Amino acid sequence: MLTRAHFRRLYKYQYMLDHDTNGHCHRVGQLMRCFARQLGFPEQDCLVAYILGYVHDCGKYHVPDAILRKGGPLNDAEFDVVKLHPILGAEIVFSTTGSRELANVIAAHHERLDGSGYPYGFGERQILPLSRMLSICDSFEAMTAQRPYRAPMTASVAVAELQRCSDIQFDAMLVELFVRRVLPVWEQDGLLEVVND
Ligand SMILES: [Fe+2]
Fold this sequence. Notes:
Blueprint (H helix, E strand, L loop, with lengths): L3 H12 L3 H20 L4 H13 L9 H4 L7 H7 L2 H13 L2 H8 L21 H16 L10 H10 L7 H17 L2 H5 L2
Helix pairs in contact: 2-3, 2-8, 2-10, 6-7, 7-8, 8-9
The protein binds fe (ii) ion.
């Protein structure tokens, strides 16, 4: 079981990341909790979903700053290092919580249903439901957030992108639930404005 004590220990890895990454992870955590609630998860599992969302990029703690904060595009060697962060994050989660299942959720957050993701190139049957949820929340937040190098997408453009990539990158049924059940609550709670901060 993932507890608040585990979260406090994981938080130190997250805290070391830069402000943009931290804000992104906080909002992914909020989206994950909202998603879990809309799917009817028990409250304890909603907390787990929040924590997994919040710490999903903790493996970046081990990626050199020169790569993480590089202004321009990454070269292939640099991107190969970045592609290790799900595995590094999974090891942090495993060493902190002792849960291989939770670690596996983090390890697969950049996998895609068509097998073109990283680090393993998992196929559809190997990607856990929480990893699929995480992939949707992570991508939606990244698309709608302000970044120094590009303007944010509107929520409707980001939704169209999630739908376009359904069954290729994302789980189509979960995208549909995310759009129909999660985003209305997100918007109603005024959290979309936070996303666009
Ligand atoms: Fe990531």
